[in-house]
Amino acid sequence: MEGPFIRIEDTGEVVPLRPEITTIGRGRGVDIRLTDPSVSRLHAEFVRRGPYLYVVDLGLSRNGTRVNGRPIARRVLDDGDVVSFGAARGRIGGVPREDFAPEVELRRAAAPELTRREVDVLTSLCRPALSDEAFVAPATAREIADDLVVTEAAVKQHLLRLYQKFRIPEGTNRRTRLANEVVALGLVRPTPVVPSQRATGTPESSPATTTVGNRRAS
After folding, report:
1. Which long-range contacts (CB under 8 A, 24 or more apart) does 32-37 make?
2. Using CA atoms, how far apart are residues 18 and 93, in angstroms rounded to an integer?
3. How far apart are the first and last CA of the chain?
4. Which residue among 76, 139, 189, 212 is least crowded, i.e. fewest CB within 10 A of its CB?
5. What is the pLDDT along the chain (218 residues), one digit of tens a residue?
């Protein structure tokens, strides 16, 4: 078989991976459906970029995703890697071999230039991923609008531009893929709230508690 594929352990089925995004889970709408009850309806996705392939755990499962037995959030895959989704497993094949450290995450060489408002939208989008609680999903357009006190339509327009800037293809879980990309690039990260902020009444959930790199004024 030409191109990357996954061989499902339980059935022996060999499934080719799509050119861009391949979703995997127990739900009816995924590209690769697994029936094991430990698998979430939407568990993870495979992403192809040129000759490289990586897997992203979508944070929607208590059982998580593992590569060669190690829990991951996002991991570049090599030929022969075993990927586990809960108790279900599959082996990756068809990935060109290269002298490439498997521990290194695949990242873009440079992040796009962002306006101040785009920074605010990304900060609000990724806040659930940066909290102390388990990451369930990034903020919705409505939640971002409420957070920034703007209209939901305005937020959706900003998200569309951000999808283009970060080259997030159309498809399911686009917000999750954008949030994963931004966090993986280190563009959004939590910073401690200094005592003076608490004393002056600055809300801990405000964008002031998050640092975003590579910004410019809108």
Report:
1. 32/6, 32/8, 34/8, 34/85, 34/88, 36/10, 36/85, 36/86, 36/87, 36/88, 37/86
2. 13
3. 48
4. 189
5. 678 999 999 899 999 999 999 999 999 999 999 999 999 989 999 999 888 899 988 866 677 888 998 888 788 899 999 999 999 999 999 998 765 454 444 444 456 788 889 989 998 998 876 654 444 578 999 999 999 999 999 999 999 999 998 888 888 888 988 887 787 666 765 444 344 443 444 444 444 334 454 444 44
DSSP one-letter string for 86-126: TTEEEEEE-PPP-S--TTSPP--SSPPPB-HHHHHHHHHHH
Q: Go through the chain and tell me how many residues it has.
A: 218
Which is it for strands 44-49 and 52-57: parallel, antiparallel or unpaired? antiparallel
Bridge-based pairing of strands 88-93 and 82-85 is: antiparallel
Residue of 109, 113, 105 whose CA lies nearest to 212: 113
| Surface-to-core class of residue 25, CB atoms within 10 Å of its CB (0-12 exposed, 13-18 middle, 19+ buried) | buried
How many CA atoms lie less than 13 Å away from 179 in the CB half-sphere? 25
Residues ≥6 apart with Cβ < 8 Å to 198: 204
User: Which residue matches tokens 């970060």?
Assistant: 166
Give, for 47, the enclosing helix (H) or strand (E): strand 44-49
Structure tokens at 143: 């939640």
Give the span between the Cα atoms of 144 and 147, in whole angstroms: 5
Distance CA 125, CA 91 (A): 33
